[in-house]
Amino acid sequence: MYDRVTEAIAEVMFDSVQAGRPVYTLADAETISRVLDAAGVEDSTLEGLSQVVRSTLQLDNAGVSTLHSQAEDARRHQRHPLETPPALPLLVVLSIAAEKMHADGNLAAHNYYSRLYGILGIPATESHRFERDYRRTAELLWGSLNSWLEAWEGERGIPTAYAVGGHAFIGLPMSQAVVRQHDRDGLHELFAMEGMTPGLRISPDDMSRAMDPYATAMPSLPLSSHLARLWRLSTARERIVEAACLELEAWDGSGIERIAAMRPVATTRLLAFLRTFPRKSMEFNLMLPYRSEGPDIARFNLADGESIVPTVAGPGGSTRLSGVEGVSATSLVADQLTGKFGDDDSRPFGRRPTRVAALRWDDLQGAFVEIERISLGEDSIVLASSDARQRVEAHLAAHARPGWQDLADLPGTPEGWLVYQHVQIVSAPTGQMHPDLLPLAPRARTSLTLRGGFVLPGLLRKWSVMEPPEAVALAAGASSVSLRVYRGTRIDPAEVIVESDQPGELAVLPLRDGGLSDGEYVVAMFVDDAVKPSSTALLRLRSARTPQFRVEDVDIRLVYSPDYSPRWPLTAGPPEWPSHVNGPKIVGLESGRDGDATPMREFVPRARSATKAAPVKTRVGIPMASDSCLITGMHRFLLPPVLPGQAPTRSIDGECTTCGLVRRFAGTPWAAKKKDRGAKTILLPEIPPVIESDGPDFEVAFDALNHVGTGSFGVFERIAAQVEGSGLFADSFLRRLEVTGHLDVARDCHFQVTEWAVNTSTLVPTGAGKYVLVGSRSSALLDHLTDLFGRAAVVSTSVDAELARVEVVGDLPIATLAEAGVTVLEKSPARAIAQALPPLSDVGRSLKRVIVPTYRSAEFWDTASASWHPTESLARLGAYRLKDFGSTYAIRTGGDIESGTIGLGNAQIVKHIANMWAGDPLIGYHSRSGSVVTPLGADLPSLYGRALALCSGRAPREIVSHRMLQYSSVPRSVADVIYDRVSR
Fold it and tell me: What's the pTM?
C-alpha cells in the first residue's frame, strides 16, 4: 500500500506539467484525495494518508530507530536516484504539519512537533524518540527528494527543499509549506505589475523590496492574505522571498498579458545583442509582453499612419521583432513607441525612451534586457545619450567595478548614443543624484551574484564545469565580506572547499581555478564574521562527463536515409530505414554513378560585383519633441495630489510626464533634512577588474552540446549565443558541426531546424596511422583513451575552424576501443557518402512549392559573380532572396513561373542549384593545396559538405579576405564525385 501511495504522489504532484517549475511536497485536501484514490486507499483524507505513513514507523520496537525503514530505503535510493524516492508520503505529512504551524503563526520548534505528532498519532511516550530519530535522518530523507528531481533534470520540477531560517531540521518542511498554489498565482501577477521579465534572476534583497509595498498594504492584492499575514514573521518572510525568487526564475510569463493591457509601457522592454560574427556590432530589438506560437505582426503607430513589422516567438512567453536589420536602431531607442500586437487592438504595447538605460544580461533571452534599475554586481550594458557622457562616466568611475568600456564607433549603435559594456555596479550613491542616473542606482544594498560562466540550457540552472561563474558579494557598510563554497546542497563546515575573506564591502571569488568537479555546491556570503550567512546561492556544475542522456540512446534518433525523403541529403529523419548515414558511419547505402564523372574544374576566383548601397531603415516610432526631457535633460515630475485628511508619508513618488522616470521625493521635514545631509564618500577597495575573455571558447560550447545530447534549435541557440549572440552564427556553427559528422540535423520542408543529436564516438582515418575523433566526447573519454593507448598512440586536442578537434596518431587497440564504446572505421567514408548522393537536380525538384509570398524587395542570384543583385521581377529561372524584415530563399523553374510558385530552400542549396542550371558549378579544385574551394556563403549543404569534410576531419575554413571557403585535403577521386553530383 505504501509503495502505491509513493508512486501516486510522484504521478499526481510531480508529473510532467511541473517541468521547469519549483515544486513542493505540501498537498491540500483535494490533492490528497486524488493521490489516495489513484493508490486505491479507501480513506482518501489526511487521516488515510497518515495511517499509511504511520504503518512504516517502528514505534513499537524500542531497540530500532522509528525511521529505520525510511532511512534504509533512502540510502538505497542514493544508488538509483531516477527511481521514485520512497520517503515521498512521509515528506508530504511533514510538510502538512509545517503548514498547520504557519496557520497559527507560532513557529517555535515544539509547536511543529506537536502538530506532527497529532497528525501521525504518535504517543507522548515516543515523541522524544521520534524527534531524535528525525533529526538524525532529516537531511537524508529530504535529500532523496532533491536528488530525484536533480536526476530528472527538472522534468518533474525544480527542487526547493532546503532548510530556511534558524531551524536546521524543521526548516526543511517549512520550506515546503510557506507558499501555496494560489499564492503563486498572486506572485506571477506581482511580477507582471513590477515589469519583471520571465526567467529573471534577482537577489532576495531586491525581491523583498519589490514585495514589501504589496505585502504591507491593505488589502495586499495581488498577494494573498495568507502571504501578507506570514510576511510579518521574519523567518517566514525569508522563505517567501526565496520562493518568490525561484518562481520568478521559472515563470513563463503567465499573467503578463492582462497587466500589459493596462500598463503597456512598463512591460515592453528593449533588447540588445552584442555581435562578434561576422564582425563586432550592436543589434537592438524589442521584447513584447505577449505569447505567440509562431510568426505574427507588430503594428507601430507613426505620426502619419502605422508601420508593420513581423514578429517571432521569443523565450519565456515573450515575442520579439523579426528581421530587425531593416528597422532603425535609433528609432527603437530614441522614439516614443506605441502600437498593437497582432491584427486586433486588444494587445497594446509601448516604450518611452530615457536618456540613460541599463540592460542586464538574461540567460533565457540570450540578450541584454532593459531594466528599471541596475542590480548590484550584475553584468550589464549601459545605453546613454551622448550629451550625458560626462555625467555617466563620472558615475561609473565612482561606483562600477573597473574594466567597463565605452564601445566607441561600434556598428549598429544608434546615432547620438553611447554604449558601455562590462558594467558591474558595486556601490550606490548615498546622497542626491541627477535624475538621469537613477537607472544606475541599485535599490539593494546586499547582493550575492553568480556572474558570467557558461550557462547550460535546461530546466535546472547550471553552468559548465569548464567555465564556472565567479561569485560577487556586496554588502553596504560592511567592514569585511567572506565567500565560502561548500560541496553539496547544505552549509556544512566540514565540506568547505573554497573560501575567500576580503576587507571592505565587496568580495569577488573566481571559481574557474577552484578545482570544482561536476555536482552541486552552495555559495554562501558572510558579513563581518557573522556565523549565519546573509545570502546563499546554489551552484550546479555539469559537463559531458555527466550527460543528460546516454549518447547511445540519442545517437540513432536521427539518420540520413534515401528511403526517408527525396531531400534526404539535406535533412535527417527517424531511424526507421536500414540504409542510412549516421555521423561518419554508413549502413547499406548503394553508390550512384561515378565511373564517368567529369573531373572538377580548377578553381578560378570570380569577379566581385559592385558594392550595394545600404538599405533605408524603417522608422517605428514618433520622434520626441525638441523640448522633451530626452532632448533637454530637464524632467517634469508630476506629484500626486494631497487629499484632505491624508497623513504625510516619508516619501512621495513623482513620475516624469515625458519619459516616465520615477523619482522619490521627501514627504516630511525630517526626511528632507536627511536627504540634504552631505553624501558619504565611498572608498572602494582594490577590486579585480572585469576581464573580457580572450575569445569564444568552442571547446566549452562543444562540451555543453555533449552534455545536452539532443534538442531543438532553440536549445542549440542558447549554447551558441554564449559564443556569439547572432542567429547567423548559430546557423553557421550548426552547419559546421553537421558537415564534420559531430551532429545529425533534422529540418522541415521550410528548411527550419527541428532537432539535432550528437553522434556516438567514432575514430575516422585521415591518413596512415592518423585518426580524428568524430561525435561524442568528454574529458573522461579523452583521459580513458590516453590510458588505453599508452605509448602506442598520441591524443592531441586543438581548435580548428572554430570547432574543437581531437586527433589520434599511432596504432589503435580496436577491440579494446569497441569495449569502451568507440568505433574505429577501417577506411574513410568520404567517397562512399559522395557516391550515394543524388544529383542536385533531383533535390531541386523535391523542394516544397508554395505560392509566391508578399515581399518588400527581391534579389536575384548572379551565377557569374556569385552575388545577390536587386531585381524588380521574378520572371527568370534561378535563385531568389525575398525580403520582408526577414529573408526567404527560393528557386524558380519554368513550371514555377507558369504556376506562380517558388521552391523553398536555404541560402546554400538555392545558390548551388542556380549555378548547376547555369552550367557553372560554384565549387572548384585547388591543385596546389589539394583542396576544394567555393565562394564564402556558398558552402555545400549537409551530406554534400560532409563527404568533403570527412576527408580531413576538418570543417571548411573561411578565407574572409578572399571571400572563399576551403575544404582541405580532399582527394581528386572524392572531389570529382561531388562535382558530378552538383553539376547535374
Answer: 0.84
